[in-house]
Every structure is written in C-alpha cells, then in structure tokens.
Amino acid sequence: LQNRDVIWAPTERARWQEQRTAIEQQYIQKLSANQLGLVPADLSLYTLITYQFLHGGWGHIIGNLIFLFLLGFTVEKALGPGRYLIAYLVCGALSGLMFTAVSAGSYVPLVGASGSISGLMGMYVAIYGLQKIRFFYFLGVYFNYFRAPAIALLPVWVGKEIYDYWYAGATGIAYMAHAGGLIAGAGLVWLLGKSWLQVREEFFEPEEEEQDARFTTGYAQAMASLGRMEFDLARRQFEALREHYPERHILLEHLYQLAKLRPDLPEYRDRAKELMNDALSRRQPEQMIAIWQEYLGKGESYQPLSAHDHNRVLFTSLKQHDLKAAEKAFERLKSTGDDMLTTEACRLLVEEFEKRQMAPKARHYRQLLQAG
C-alpha cells in the first residue's frame, strides 16, 4: 500500500474506485453467488440453504452428483425420503456454519452441495458401518452386483478429497465445510439414531442364505401350528412371514385357506381378492377364475364382491375363451346394480357371440342391451 502511488497514479486510482463502486452495485453484487451464496461476512439464514444449490461450474456439479447418486439412494433407503431431505439440508447448513466460523469476515461466497454430500458420507458411515450391501457394476453390456462392506466407499470419497487437495489453490475448495458436513452427518445419526433419525426396521437386509434359513424356520413353525390346529397362531405366523417375504406366493395361499375357515368374515373376501390379483400378476388367469368361483360358493352370500371384481373376471374369462364363466360373471355383475359396467359387459358379450356365430346367444344379449 505504501507504493501504490508508484504503481498507479492517485487520479487514476480515484477514477477507478468511482467506477468500481458502480460496477459492483450494478453487476457483481447481482451475481447469483453473491445473492444466494453463503458470504461469511454477511451471513443470512436463508443462504444457509440456498448456497447448497449453486455450483461454480460443470466439473463442480458433476462431481457432487456422482457422490449424491452413490450415497443418496442408500441413505434415503435407510431413513425414508422425508427425514433424508431434512437431514441433507441440515448437514449443509451446519457445514456452512463451520465454514463461516473459520472464515469470519470473508466476502468470498461459498457455493455448492459438497458440505451436504459430506454430511451424507458421515450418515452413510454411521448407519452402515461394516454391514455388507450390494454394489452395482457394469462392463460394457454385462452388469451385475457384488456384496461388500459399506464402509468400502469411504476410501473412495477420501481419495477424491486428497486428489482435489492438490488443486485447492485453483479451485478454492472449502475443506472446512467438507469436514463440518462429515462431522454433522455422523453426529446427527449418533445423537438422534435412537429417535428421529432411527433407521427403518425393514431397511436391514440379511444375507440371502440367512434369509432362506429364517424363512425355512418360520415356515416350519407356522406349519407345525397348522398341524396342531392352532389356526389363529398359524395365521399370525404366516402374516409375520409375509411382511418380510411378500414375494413368497405360498404364504398368501395359506392365509387364504385359513380365512376360508370363516367365510362369513370380511377377511375371507379380502384374501380372495388378494389371491385373484396375485394370480393375474403371475399370468395365471385360470387360477383367478377358479378362486372367484370358489368364493361365489362359500363367501358371496356373506360378503359380496364388488361390480368391478365381477367385471374383471368377465374380461379375463373372455380372454381365456371361457364363455360359461363370462356369462356367470355377467349375471353377478348385473345383480350389483351397476348399470354402466353391466351395459359395457353386455356389449362385449354380444360382440363375442357374434364373432363366434352363436346367433341365439348374441340375440339374447342384444335384447338385454336394448331393454337396458
């Protein structure tokens, strides 16, 4: 400063300062980084959130998106989307406060989601630790997954930080913000892991072999209860198994058979509809029609199916060319009093019988259509 008059004449410097003030007010202060970035010397509460969504370039945002992709899915799966979003933003805010504490008085704005993503890494390590999870990979057209301790991702993230360190002078990386985010994420799980940030119980996925062993043990216990004719206990055991193994079709079949013991209760209707939907999803329309016919004989008089249920059976029967079942479904549909579905079903039957050149049947349903 003592030699400034040697480098720049006082009159020229004064002229430059006048123009600089106008340029700062009209242009520089209106940049998004200054408007919404986190400026330690002029901290605002809203910028603790907004700075997380600004980035300094494509390299900055792409690097953050890669780790957001790697960490975000797994942490969200553990916490649920609502708590995940709140925890993500809180980590970013705490990261910004850490940066402000060590850069007090600075007018250089902080932008980027690196602090928030560092918080995700802290939560990720605190939640998963040495637990084995699935890592997806692909090589050309081949793809698969392997299981490894979740903490294996930590050295990858640390390696990226070390790599970036050598370019810190050029890119201005805020490492204290990263450190603040990492500590904040791990600290949130440590402090609130037993309460608000408690990992969802269904999140922890055991090994496949362990899953099979658990299912086999639980299934054997439920079957033993059936053998002792302890039906209520068996139903509870099958329901508990189905919560953990919803893809095991056999469990739904057992629950349906148990519900059938009391056809007067709504549970039998509900299980019948579940099993009908399951049969359709597994592309077994014949089984769906068989379940429907069995329910008509046992439970329809107590808990009638809806017009939509009968209509689905009618459509399925026509696709299977089971005209007898289709006509039976039409009679049941007609008895529900749903005129719109009945008219549409009657029109379908007319078209089907005309296509098959079954004139008497086609005439019968055409008359019903005209009468309606």
TrEMBL record:
Task: State whether keyword Cell membrane applies.
Answer: no
Which Pfam families does the record associate with it? Rhomboid (PF01694)
Which parts of the chain span the membrane according to its record? 53-73, 85-104, 110-128, 135-159, 165-192
Molecular function, one GO term: serine-type endopeptidase activity
User: Mind telling me which Gene3D superfamilies this protein's record contains?
Assistant: Rhomboid-like
**Any idea which UniProt keywords this protein has?**
Hydrolase, Membrane, Protease, Transmembrane, Transmembrane helix
Task: Tell where it localizes.
Answer: Membrane
Q: What is its main location?
A: membrane
Q: Does the keyword Magnesium apply?
A: no
Its membrane topology is listed as: Multi-pass membrane protein
Q: Name one GO cellular component term.
A: membrane
- Please give the InterPro entries that the UniProt record associates with this protein: Peptidase_S54_rhomboid_dom, Rhomboid-like_sf, Rhomboid_protease_S54
GO biological process terms on file: proteolysis
The residues covered by the Peptidase S54 rhomboid domain are 44-194
> What family does the entry list?
Belongs to the peptidase S54 family.
Its recorded name reads: Rhomboid family intramembrane serine protease
What's the source species for this entry? Marinobacter adhaerens
